[in-house]
Specification:
Radius of gyration: 17 Å
Bound molecules: S-adenosyl-L-homocysteine, 3,4-dihydroxybenzoic acid, magnesium ion
Strand order of the largest sheet: 5-4-3-6-7-9-8
Helix content: 25-40%
Distance between the termini: 28 Å
Largest sheet: 7 strands, mixed
């Protein structure tokens, strides 16, 4: 595929005549209409903003989607790579229920601190273990299998994270990759990491995969989902 067929930087604002304002408006409508339970988790987003963390968490409808994937898979043990302020973590913790567990890996101790406080406050404290440091340093010490792995950290390492996710999986494990579209056309380590992970999604006979483009409050992007055979 020619590189200019892929989205490059700046692509999040408009695609042809479609406007990101319209996407955001519809997203807000959809959230209020089909996912109003996301309102409970708004304090986590507020704490994230108050702490000066970047505004890059999954959107409410995406968080609910992750939750539903985890519920549909019957996930009890979930691994997340990239905690930020704990917003996606909370959706995943909600999905595993009171006997489940979420292990989430975060590089930045300040992000981990904000997440810890928010998750405790939201009542998910006992379910969530945050391991602070580069994910590649934590991954070798984790015991699998996990029922679902959500990969949402530094995109340059996506392939490394996917390799670990498969290693820590069992047949049936669901693997989700965030942000697979927006930076796809760049020539950067991040784009390389995204493309390499997508290539394994499509070629590894153990993985049954797809990827979807998304629009909404976060602009134009996409996520990929695989199930381990
Ligand atoms: N999953 C979160 C958003 C994560 S943003 C949500 O949707 O709510 C990406 C996070 O990955 C940031 O907090 C960033 O600090 C973290 N990160 C970046 N590089 C990392 C690394 N090498 N190891 C672990 N986490 C990393
Ligand atoms: C951005 C969004 C994300 O979901 C993420 O994980 C990292 C960065 C962004 O909008 O820059
Ligand atoms: Mg993301």
């Amino acid at each position: 595929m020619p590189a200019d067929a892929l989205p490059a930087r700046g692509a999040r604002r408009t695609v042809g005549t479609m406007s990101s304002e319209k996407w955001a408006e519809v997203d807000t409508y959809l959230e209020a209409t089909v996912a109003p339970d996301g309102a409970d988790l708004e304090p986590i987003r507020a704490a994230q903003a108050a702490g000066g963390l970047p505004d890059i968490a999954v959107s409410p409808t995406q968080g609910k989607f992750l939750y539903l994937l985890a519920r549909i898979a019957g996930a009890r043990r979930i691994l997340e790579i990239g905690t930020l302020g704990g917003y996606s973590t909370a959706w995943l913790a909600r999905a595993v229920g009171p006997d489940g567990a979420v292990v989430t890996l975060e590089y930045d101790p300040r992000h981990a601190e904000v997440a810890r406080a928010s998750l405790d406050e939201a009542g998910f404290g006992a379910l969530v273990e945050i391991r602070v440091g580069p994910a590649v340093d934590s991954l070798p010490f984790l015991d699998g299998p996990f029922d679902l792995v959500f990969i949402d950290a530094d995109k340059a390492n996506n392939r490394v994270y996917l390799d670990w996710a498969v290693r820590l999986s069992r047949p049936g494990t669901v693997i989700v990759l965030d942000n697979v579209v927006r930076r796809l056309g760049e020539s950067s380590p991040e784009a390389e990491g995204i493309r390499s992970a997508l290539e394994r999604f499509g070629t590894d006979p153990r993985l049954d995969a797809t990827a979807l483009q998304t629009v909404g409050v976060k602009g134009w992007d996409g996520l990929a989902v695989a199930q381990v055979r």
